[in-house]
Amino acid sequence: MKRYIKIVLMATTLTTAAVIACNKRLNVFDQNNPTTDSYFKTAAELRNGVNAIYSTLHSGNLVGREWFFTHDMRGGETGSGGAQLEAPRNELLKQPSPSPSNSVMTSVWNGTYQMINRANLVIAKAPGVKDDPAARDVIVGEAEFLRAWAYFELVSMWGDVPLYKEPDTLATGYKGKSPAADVYALIIADLNDAAAKLPAGHSTDGRATSDAANFLLGRVEMQKGDYNAAKTALLKIYGKYTLVDNFLDNFDGDVKVGDKVQATGHEFNPESIFEVVFIDKGDNNFNWGYTGEGATADESIMRSQEYGVVWGNVVPSDATLNEFEPGDPRYKFTFYESGDSILTYNSTKVGKVLTESGMNVAASTHNGIVKRRVYRKYSVLDWNDDTFHPDGLNMRVMRYAEVLLMLAECEAEVGSPAKAADYINEVRTTRKSVQMPPVTLTGHDDAMKAVMHEKMVEMAGEEVNNIDILRWRAKGYYPSLRPDPKPGQVALFPIPASETSANPLIK
User: At residue 11, what are phi and psi to the nearest 5 degrees?
Assistant: First the structure.
């Protein structure tokens, strides 16, 4: 059963804060719209502020919708579902670089900077909170973690970006672009401080922990090329989590239609390090306002709907399908194809067979076989096949399998291919539901090829591949080790037109 959490949402404007609380699903808590000067005097009020950052994280601008499109369209794991794929998403998928007016890219830019401004407000107000120093420090750690997450999204995909360390309270408070090195320096400082302040151990409520901070620190250090520092951070997590026996337990959650709960899922399981929380209220609604806030706002996510068989905007790429070794059970755990059964309620019912005519998606090719296929990860089709159903499956944006594969990459890069093989084999052999043959690795290129393969099959469709491609391309591994999955792609996004038109310091 999914554990309910209290995430309090605070909608900040330039000079006011409207404080709203939610029980992961919103209960009203209004304190007459206090100003930012009069508020944030207690740890409880500061908690409201950090919860507003989580609110933005799960909004439509970010993980609720546009974030996964930004990563998946730019990575090598997806193809167009057909003519129904909207123009800005199709542009991200097919063009070397999107136009500065691309709405999906702009949504992610806006969402990350909203997170940053809210985090800056919490961090700036924290020194004045004296009633509960221990709680205050944890809250600051959460704000630092979330600010670091947002800045990493920006610097990894845009490069040099404006760097705001204080809350922006003026309409004219623009900044020009800062060097990417300065942005990385702030991210690393934030994550080190967050790791020291946040509680250790497994998160069961969607809040950041020291393990989540070290996970992100490892990912950040890898992206900037410091594999020894990445390894140091990741080893602080190693051995504290386990791979769940059932691979699919990483991608299910609560499914509800009306008042009927159809599934409860395995969220916050022993493999999960950090999840972005969503809820299926059974009303088939999504917060199209994109803020993720409000007294009655829906907190669903559009992933299953967008990648499903009805809207069919996104399908797995042929390259991803063909990456799987013969007999790898993760293939069937990762994709549905015509002939498979849905509505089996976790294999407890006979279910319904998917047909070619019943799947509104373009066909794909796997080992020469042309069929219609969709991603099974984060799909609700095993429990519900309504034509429109935004879902409540938590996004496991950090899970232990990736820790092992990041450590494998670190070992490959620092010259320890045999140790890289050990980490890869933990992923390949320790799950009851997977059990793939172990690998033996003897050199850098051999090890990196194995890392690249395993990362692509284990993490397919999890918004990881885009960042991996950017890192591996920059190191020349395309085409020296593998063909470039997106040849000719421009590495960095353009600054959105909405920013350059408003910000006189960016040309």
Answer: -90, 105
pTM of the predicted model, to two decimals?
0.93
Q: Coil, helix or strand for 392?
A: strand
Interhelix angle 43-57/133-158, nearest 10 degrees:
20
Place of tokens 């709405």: 103
| CB count in 10 Å sphere of residue 157 | 21
CB 336 within 8 A of CB 380: no
Over the stretch 409-430, which tens digit does the pLDDT of each residue have?
Answer: 999 999 999 999 999 999 999 9
Residue 9: pLDDT above 80?
no
Phi and psi angles of residue 7, each rounded to the nearest 5 degrees, phi first: -115, 115
Where does 153-254 show beta strands of DSSP type E?
Answer: 161-162, 177-178
Asked if 38 contacts 321 with a C-beta cutoff of 8 angstroms, the reply is no
50-51-52 Cα angle (round to 5)? 90
d(CA 368, CA 361): 18
- What does the alpha-carbon distance between residue 212 and residue 446 come to, in Å, rounded to a whole number? 30
The tally of CA atoms less than 13 A away on the side-chain side of residue 240 is: 19
- How do 255-257 and 260-263 pair as beta strands? antiparallel
